[in-house]
Design a protein that fits this description.
The protein is an alpha/beta fold and 398 residues long. It has 17 helices and 11 strands. The longest helix has 24 residues.
């Protein structure tokens, strides 16, 4: 073994050392599990890449580390998995009865009636139903920018007029400027809390009076997709304003903390007449029986929610601290992702990280030198940091 390879081994991570200590024929003979292969291919130095490439050609499957879609790396829970397995025996049945079971569970927990609850195929369908209800025929929608684009993009496609209000200097929703832009023509105001992609929250002391006042003139839609991940005492749900009968829609999803993104289950809570209006635009019973069964089980598994939230927060805080040590500012996050200042064009960085086997968030104009990074498992974040050092020290990755 040459001196150069010895130096690489001394400075490599534990996983890299495992692979560098084997010659190519050993790698070909050894049966490695998928995660070992994934991490090794993501963080291996360039000198090892030809060996890994040859192994790939011999049938070893590789897949990127997904840190770009805000998925829960730990879910679904065992309870949800068991429910999915059991539900396969019900695949011959239409899911309508399970709609009622899930809406009843949600209503009871939130102090509402089932008539207040609207289910959809993920929060995307809920957003699209709302866009149809209030954006058709040139309806005007007011939203922060940047924020989650599910509502805005669909509303634009059906002819709605979108008014964007930039986030403030702390990258939080600027309620004051939104209030200034309000007119009688605005049918819907969209607030994502916590906000995506920035991860900021709007505290209850500011949001509740804003929603109360604004809902006198327009419907206010509050997207709470990351609600279960927030622990800040200044954060509150806007469901009490739904209970009070105001012009408010609150949406949630089973995609994030519950880990059911692939099953597409979301819901909205609104006054019964508003809920009925949204249902007119639902694509029939669009959630399948397996998704419904999994959501019912997950919703009744608070231990997993707590464990998942705490595990994500722990890793998020570690990564934020590492990035700070390297001189990269990150926005205090209350979600399962970080928005941090990269200091170089995100497009080139995204491509360079993909070449290392790691997917990171897409560009979010106008913050084109920032990166939205989803939080994965500890070993995935360790792989990210290794690749991050490699890419940031490579001038060609700009």
């Amino acid at each position: 073994m040459g001196r150069g390879q010895c130096r690489r081994i001394r400075h490599a991570s534990a996983l890299q050392r495992t692979f560098l200590s084997r010659n190519s024929s050993e790698i070909m003979r050894t049966r490695i599990n998928r995660r070992e292969w994934l991490l090794a291919s993501a963080v291996a130095p360039l000198a090892l890449r030809p060996v890994l490439a040859r192994a790939a050609r011999r049938g070893v499957r590789t897949a990127p580390i997904r840190l770009h879609s805000n998925e829960n790396p730990y879910g679904p829970s065992q309870a949800a998995q068991a429910a999915m397995s059991a539900a396969s025996g019900e695949s011959n049945l239409y899911p309508s009865s399970r709609y009622h079971e899930l809406t009843t569970l949600i209503a009871e927990r939130e102090g509402l009636t089932p008539d207040h609850v609207v289910l959809g195929a993920g929060s995307h369908e809920v957003l699209r139903m709302t866009a149809m209800a209030y954006g058709l025929a040139g309806g005007e929608i007011l939203t922060a920018f940047p924020t989650f684009e599910g509502m805005e993009s669909y509303a634009s496609s059906i002819g709605a007029h979108i008014h964007r209000v930039p986030v403030d200097d702390n990258l939080a929703t600027d309620l004051t400027r939104i209030q200034e832009r309000l007119t009688q023509a605005v049918k819907l105001v969209f607030v994502c809390n916590p906000n995506n992609p920035t991860g900021t929250i709007t505290p209850d002391s500011a949001l509740q009076p804003f929603v109360k006042n604004t809902s006198k003139h327009s419907v206010v839609f509050v997207d709470e997709a990351y609600y279960e991940l927030v622990t800040d005492p200044e954060y509150r749900t806007m469901v009490p304003l739904v209970q009070a009968g105001r012009n408010v829609i609150v949406s949630r999803t089973f995609s994030k903390v519950y880990g059911l993104a692939g099953l597409r289950v979301g819901y909205a809570m609104a006054r019964p007449d508003i809920a009925a209006r949204l249902r007119q635009f639902r694509t029939d019973n669009s959630i399948n029986i397996i998704g419904l069964r999994a959501a019912i089980a997950a919703y009744q598994d608070p231990a997993f929610v707590t464990w998942s939230r705490d595990s994500i927060a722990s890793e998020r805080n570690k990564v934020a601290a590492r990035l700070k040590e390297l001189g990269h500012r990150s926005v205090p996050s209350h979600t399962n992702f970080l928005f941090f200042h990269l200091g170089r064009p995100i497009g080139g960085f995204q491509r360079a990280m993909a070449s290392q086997g790691i997917l990171v968030g897409r560009p979010f104009p106008p913050y084109l030198d920032w990166c939205r990074l989803s939080i994965g498992r500890p070993e995935e974040m360790a792989a990210f940091m290794d690749a991050f050092h490699l890419v940031m020290n490579d001038s060609s990755a700009n």
